[in-house]
Write a structure and sequence with these properties.
alpha+beta, Arc Repressor Mutant, subunit A, three-stranded antiparallel sheet, 32% helix, globular
Amino acid sequence: MNELSKYLCLLLRHQPEKAELDMDSHGWVSVEQLIDGVNRYSSYKLDRDLLDRIVVEDNKGRYRYDEKHEKIKCCQGHTVPWVEPDLEYCEPPEFLYHGTTTKALEAIEESGAIKKMARHAVHMQADISKSWQSAERWHKIPVVLKIAASEMAHEGFTFGVTENEVWCTEEVPVKYICDKIYRLGE
């Protein structure tokens, strides 16, 4: 089920064309079309019950159904150029956390900022444990960066939060990284 969930993320965030999905400007696709596309264009087999389980059991809350459960989307992380994530723009908490790797941290320090890369925004969490999930997924040496988000907001940076509580902004200059947190023994 984990591999199928990753494949769904690929389709719903990055490559809807792989399953001939008609994605709207907020990332919504028809549930029926998604199930049909997965079954037709991949080696996975998907039905409504399995999709419901994936949506409910996803530990990051990536997926959302519309009110009628006829459409589905990923809440954030899109690289599809026409998708604009649904964000609630508001004041962030004092600190947010960004999970990454020590190798990526070198590039961040060289460039002078955490950049959004191909995504629509830099992703951060208010809950440090969720940032560790992001940092550890790369199978490299993880590190979590503590970001002075409130200070950034007071200096003109805009923050939005997704339905699954991921905080987004355009970029984070390194001067707002107030701590680098490593796991013991690393």
